[in-house]
Fold these 2 entries.
Entry 1:
Amino acid sequence: MLKGHQSWIFENKPVIRSTATVVGPFEGRGPLAEDFDIVHGDSTLGQDSWEKAERTLIEEAAKLAIESGGLTKEQVQFYIGGDLMAQLISSSFAARTLSIPFLGVFGACSTSMESLALASMIVNSGSAKFALAGTCSHNSSAEKQFRYPTEYGSQKPPTAQYTVTGAGAALVSSEGEGPVVTSATIGRVIDMGITDPFNMGAAMAPAAVDTIEAHFRDLGVEPGHYDLIVTGDLAKVGYEIASELFRKHNIPMDQTEYSDCGMMIYDYEQQMVQSGASGCACSAVVTYGHLLKRMRKGELKRILVVATGALLSPISYQQGESIPCIAHAVSIEAGGVSS
Amino acid sequence: MLKGHQSWIFENKPVIRSTATVVGPFEGRGPLAEDFDIVHGDSTLGQDSWEKAERTLIEEAAKLAIESGGLTKEQVQFYIGGDLMAQLISSSFAARTLSIPFLGVFGACSTSMESLALASMIVNSGSAKFALAGTCSHNSSAEKQFRYPTEYGSQKPPTAQYTVTGAGAALVSSEGEGPVVTSATIGRVIDMGITDPFNMGAAMAPAAVDTIEAHFRDLGVEPGHYDLIVTGDLAKVGYEIASELFRKHNIPMDQTEYSDCGMMIYDYEQQMVQSGASGCACSAVVTYGHLLKRMRKGELKRILVVATGALLSPISYQQGESIPCIAHAVSIEAGGVSS
């Protein structure tokens, strides 16, 4: 149901019946390693290209989420997914393997919550019993596409972010047990004129703040409504800018815990990741792996995940364009049995 | 509402309140020229890159559709759009200009009906009063990205298709006057092993047939339910393959008129377009321009538009992958006043 101008309230309480997270070896050395379902020891995943490795990540996550939910892929009505690769080849090829009716979506790193928002809306409205939301990224395929192949070993400025190698999938269901998706706010595209693809946190921070403001306005709530609000992935540089913007806009974020997925998955002291993490998979694996695990343990009751995306392409950057950004917010509550 | 396994019935009858179509000069010399709202005389649209020209097409179409619907852009809750460009830059940059909450979607040339299906589902479920669906393509930006820059003047085989320069947008509304969107069927990804990006019609035909079969199965109807079924864009080569597959699968398409958007927009005798037309804009401008005009004149009562997409990327092609394809179907009926 529409609430305010750009938010949905899910009055039928779609359930996250199961999730799956798959990551690469570098993520397996970070502080959240224990929260992921599969940690690969080899970032090629035994494939002969980075692109095929990326596709394998999402294929594994999708299959595992469906199995953990006690379903077969034939029972899942819709797969809503996307990734960073041009023409969403990772997700499209995975959709071929899965053979589930497919809705390709793209919001760069906000794809995690764009797909979860849509899957929840589809289930909430009775347009599906079971819908799968998923996304993936691979450090080497993303660097190759957007900046320089990792094989070059090029240096990066301190504002740069490290694309997560991983995939996260969530099976949303009209009934069952699990955390409940309660609302979503769809973001506008915001562009503050940043043109440096090595400083995406700064570009994305205003989009995160815009969506969070819209969420509070539409739902008539304040930050204290949530135990935790996470953006993802602004990383350190963007997090500081967002925090400053919250103060300027008089948004009382001190009512709650505010963190960023891009600051949680790697160990800044042991792992050289500059400003922090990014990539479609970052907010997906942090949310579906780490945060929902904390919710199941009873540590969190109500969270707001605000995934942020930088909508640049190699061509738009080469043509001197600035970086339009977007953020989509989804609220999740610890749930019991829904029916 | 879910109907069958992969279809939605829109029981609240979302209305296509207004549409807009914008095309380039080559489309303006074709047989449907009179049906388009804006025909540009210069394929650069006065911009300094093909990419910016493409973005201008969708910006114009979106603004015109909103104006024709008697709304301001501030009243439109969601813009659901995508295009062929990597990272959907045409749509993302247009969403920045429009400042409407944005859901990026990608289904290659099926994006026209993916976006209309989602916009209709969102409005039908009460998740929006007004949602805009739109897509665009530009011949020169697409050729440059997927094959060779048009400036090279390279030759093409007879199976090749000519990407339409244009954009189409539809404003879907919970009330008002106009054609009504009655159902949608979301397609699976089908891949028959075709690897030639100059023969996309052959690759896409099986996906079109799969979705059409699913549509009839889910809704319990036969082809005769519709006055017209159009695929888009299989063009001549794909149309013949699809027709053969309908016969093999015993689908009685002779009950209705069956055509293809890729065979309608150009004049085969006067315009050198090989197998016919393609591109995100093709099915969008043929549907929103030509077919809905025929519906308003009373010539068509009930149509099924089955937009087909080839989900390849330049990288997947260079790595020797085959072309996964998809098709999404949307049914539209001549409507009176809905409320």
Entry 2:
Amino acid sequence: MAFPLITRQLALSLQKNVWLGASGCRYVSKTATKTQVEFDYNGPSMKTSVPGPRSQELTKQLGDIQNVGAVNFFCNYEESRGNYLVDVDGNRMLDLYTQISSIPIGYNHPALLKLMTNPNNLSTFVNRPALGILPPENFPDKLTESLLSVAPSGMTRVQTMACGSCSNENAFKSMFIWYKNKERGHSTPSDEDLRTSVINQAPGCPDLSILSFMGSFHGRTMGCLATTHSKAIHKLDVPTFDWPIAPFPRLQYPLEEFSRENAQEESRCLEEVEDLIVKWRQKGKPVAGIVVEPIQAEGGDNHASPDFFRSLRNICRKHGCAFHVDEVQTGGGTTGKFWAHEHWGVDDPADIVSFSKKLLTGGYFQKDELQPDKAYRIFNTWMGDPAKNLFLAEVLNVIRRENLLEEVTRSGKALLNGLYELQAQYSGILSRARGQGTFCAIDICDDETRNRILLKTRDKGVILGGCGDRSIRFRPALIFKEYHAHIFLNIFNDVLAQLK
Amino acid sequence: MAFPLITRQLALSLQKNVWLGASGCRYVSKTATKTQVEFDYNGPSMKTSVPGPRSQELTKQLGDIQNVGAVNFFCNYEESRGNYLVDVDGNRMLDLYTQISSIPIGYNHPALLKLMTNPNNLSTFVNRPALGILPPENFPDKLTESLLSVAPSGMTRVQTMACGSCSNENAFKSMFIWYKNKERGHSTPSDEDLRTSVINQAPGCPDLSILSFMGSFHGRTMGCLATTHSKAIHKLDVPTFDWPIAPFPRLQYPLEEFSRENAQEESRCLEEVEDLIVKWRQKGKPVAGIVVEPIQAEGGDNHASPDFFRSLRNICRKHGCAFHVDEVQTGGGTTGKFWAHEHWGVDDPADIVSFSKKLLTGGYFQKDELQPDKAYRIFNTWMGDPAKNLFLAEVLNVIRRENLLEEVTRSGKALLNGLYELQAQYSGILSRARGQGTFCAIDICDDETRNRILLKTRDKGVILGGCGDRSIRFRPALIFKEYHAHIFLNIFNDVLAQLK
């Protein structure tokens, strides 16, 4: 495990070489680079187009076992470092997609490798407990040290789960249970409730609903999927619930230039939300909760203002619905704050906040009253994985020690300003550059051009992801620095220049 | 990490001491013990009643963060070994419940610890990939070495998932997609399908159903939960689907003594299954698939004959439904065969077989035609966890090397014969002893006595679990030997003698 660690000085000098050597380079940094990633590579290095021959061979092999239609290429995770993903053909790419936004501090971070070699941690990996019945001794401490240290305002309770979908499913269940208990006035079900619930009938299984937004993505298990409305391919052929779907604001960017128009658009959507709540109550399917992403990610990086979310929160209070903020993709620091909802500037942002991806474990925070008072209502065999809590605690240490939220704000600014400049230069191709921290996106003139750009950029050593109909989303790790933004922008510029 | 490994000889002699010293001992082994677990402890050792003071303190602490109503006690996983779980108060208990049947080869198995110290494996733990798009180089090989080496008859395709519920949810989705494509005659959705699916409407989101059985347990996310009918507390207050629920045979035990009565009961249930398929088709909610456990576990260890399952398989063929066998609890060797469905003796047991728990990773095997032909229909960020495949491959090596399926058959026989004897002796308390391999259960006269027995047995150093209304289920690890069965039976005998 000998890592060729690049020193700060060496990295800086190598960096400059790559930088100035890039063709069409316009992004020479004006300020001195503040921080380098010590265990990072010095730039992309491409040996083949992607997927290369070895990836193609492995894809064929895996194709005998699984559907491989979504496989991009095969990776050499041992050789990947920091912001760079290395593939099995020896290509080294700057990664602005990070496994669908789920690698918090880059590949093979020394702090995480060190944790693995600590013999005191072995047992946590080898003996996966049924956390809900037989937790390990250090479980309360580890939760306090990891998740509770980043608990959203007003929340002291957290439940871990295995993945994002399980987190949202169980958050929905908590909201249903809370709503029914509120309706009952107490938490003791009737005999009829008990009897009918087992056979899928009311009143035990009531006709409650969750209100979600067009363009949203909350997961793919059947409860979550009923609130997901980003792409048809996710939902096609799967039975679902008749739950209300509100329009999500379709804003104009840059937000500050269209504040009047955007405020009108948001009002329209909020009115629709209230109408739907009333309509579904009349239908006999009352809205127990509203679920929303602070930025719709999979659906195309759709933003809304803090005002919009504050109003939504108030609508929930007014109509007695729970408010569930899904931070599976936005959480973990990538917007420049640990939670995207912190940008709203409110003390009581939500009743439930769910997470996964960069947090490494799934789960959700909740207010006291949302936690069911009886055992086994929210339960499964594993209820998460303490090994992931170990990693998360270390990730949070690194974030604090290296001031990564500040870094994200700084590199995010470099990234977004670069996108604004490119958008001005290539106005026939690019539009709607937007973002918060490094959680940025830009629209491409059409789907086909978008996909062509993604492939060409990858062949030049940068991994990006698509979202929505024709957007590119940027989801680098928290150790992505200004100079990484510049490397990307230079390459992106080259690709766009060749397209023009 | 110095483990006080007990040698075979020492263990044997210590074992004999414990054995003969137990009060009311009747289970002195008549044959020489064939195999010892080398890294095991020599017997239970109790210092406090359970939960002890330290567990109580930690439960209080965790209670500020989560609902702790289901917490039994806190564990010292570092000190746990083989068949013995050690708690934070220094109590060492023989574990016949194994984290709800999810520890395949005991605690801290040396083979798994060794795997953790291999530097080649570090990267797999530290860099969790988005498996569906960017798999690691060794992924096809690891699948072949682990899961495919135990693929059910007729299946060469496997999809990993994070947990049992996700496995079943995605298996259901595969069956819905397969059914709709069959109905279409091709796999290309119409524009109307695409448009309506995003807004939760037919025909894009069709009114299909999954037929399940009373008493079944298939998980707690909302799709799974619609097929779970074991206990009200799992389902209460959660909206669900109007899907058909068939009666599961309620057999008399021992099965061989009641073959005529049981065959009648099974016929009755099978008729009902066919009636429901017809009825739901007429209702406009055709049954796309049937899901069943080979032994209903959570629901009370309810068995059915190989004939019953073969007939069910044929009913599926006749009515064009997919057949999904849920082996989340029964899979992994505990019935004496790797899959419980192998006891049916058929070449084409199912269209889908799902797993989790003892397999360490969730997932499902499927026949070729059940795999959707388009990308992103079955997908999520993680799609499982390659670190779990590493462990599984090693677990399978140990199972083969140590002939653990034979051992399970042998120790299961000792366990079940002991239960038969105790049932004859305590006929007012015990009834319906039943089992396959070590996957055994026995009924107690009433729920309250059952729970009293569970606590008393635990205080004497044996961990058991309940299931159904008043059953005790036995779910030891695959390294549970005849002499462990005898240790348990002696203690159980003591508890029953004191109850009488």
